[in-house]
Specification:
It contains nine helices and no strands. With 165 residues, the chain is an all-alpha fold.
């Protein structure tokens, strides 16, 4: 469960861009999944939790609570040197991890600027390496929508990252 929780926390952080909100998102999703009880099969629990995380984060983003409570800027994790940020890499070599910190911060900041559906599609496809069909199931949309949202999200990210160089 700890390994699954770490993956979910990393994914949540990339969705919302804040450690505290990521932890809240994971906890909310796990509670919602637990309340569903027998509806979710053992093999599909993590996928179901990811689906709940995506829909909940989109709801938070759209809701007044999200706009009112969210701080502008890169968030408290970036200001504090990133000590409490989840490790987004699974690399064993510390030199590789150090070299990736700046790139990671730039990428996370760019991801935060994407609309929630595009961000979710890009993360599900390229961070979690889900297939188009699996991503469509998580997002509850067609495969064509996954393709278009992913394509638009990647194009926007490419533009933002090239402009930042």
């Amino acid at each position: 469960m700890r390994r699954c929780g770490t993956r979910l926390t990393r994914f949540a952080y990339l969705l919302v861009g804040d450690v505290g909100q990521a932890e809240d998102l994971v906890q909310t999703a796990l509670v919602k999944t637990w309340l569903r009880g027998t509806h979710v099969t053992a093999g599909g629990r993590e996928a179901y939790v990811r689906r709940v995380m995506v829909t909940t984060s989109v709801s938070w983003w759209r809701g007044a609570r999200w706009r009112r409570e969210r701080l502008p800027g890169p968030g408290p994790a970036a200001a504090g040197g990133g000590g409490d940020r989840p490790d987004l890499t699974e690399r064993a070599d510390p030199v590789d991890a150090i070299l990736l910190v700046d790139e990671r911060d730039v990428l996370v900041a760019a991801l935060r600027q994407l609309p929630p559906r595009q961000r979710a599609a890009v993360l599900l496809r390229h961070y979690l390496a889900l297939t188009e069909a699996e991503t469509a199931a998580v997002l509850r949309c067609s495969v064509g929508t996954v393709k278009s949202q992913t394509s638009r999200g990647l194009a926007t990210l490419r533009t933002m990252l090239e402009a930042g160089r």
